[in-house]
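Final report, closing paragraph on structural work. Over the funding period we assembled a curated collection of sequence-structure pairs, and we close with a single example.
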Amino acid sequence: MWQSILIRIPDPLETFAIISSFAIPFLVYKINQKLHESGDPPWKK
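Its predicted structure, as stored:
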């Protein structure tokens, strides 16, 4: 029983990769959004 549950739990590196694959693009999107808020000219907003 426990063996089948433990097999399905991903290893720490895989978990880190899964979280990073969401977090990195999201952070880039948020940083880009903030840069556009402060850098776009008034007529473009």
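The helical segments are 2-8, 12-39. Residues 12-39 form the longest helix (28 residues). We thank the funder for supporting this effort.
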